[in-house]
Write a structure and sequence with these properties.
Elements: H1 3-6, H2 8-18, H3 23-34, H4 45-54, H5 57-62, H6 65-81
Helix pairs in contact: 2-3, 2-6, 3-4, 4-6
Length: about 90
């Protein structure tokens, strides 16, 4: 399946879920490159919030980022099982 056939955000979600793209990096791509392009649908808000938590300076200082990566993967999986493109 070509990336252009499914759109970059869905592609990044697939890569996050299958482990080919680190959750933080994938969340950043979606937040900064894809969310606005999709008119900031509320369906993506939980992923954006989880990515922001992952990038929080306190989490970085405390070395707590690894525990914050799993929720990004879980949210990516949830988004892949829902309607596409996300609405609302």
């Amino acid at each position: 399946m070509l990336r252009t056939e499914i759109g970059p955000v869905r592609w990044w979600l697939l890569l996050i879920v299958n482990g080919s793209l680190a959750p933080g990096a994938g969340g950043d791509l979606i937040t900064y490159e894809g969310w606005g392009a999709l008119a900031q649908p509320q369906a993506l808000r939980p992923l954006v919030d989880k990515t922001e938590a992952y990038n929080d300076r306190a989490a970085i200082r405390l070395g707590d980022r690894e525990s914050l990566a799993d929720p990004i993967v879980e949210e990516a999986q949830r988004l892949l099982t829902g309607p596409w493109p996300p609405q609302g």
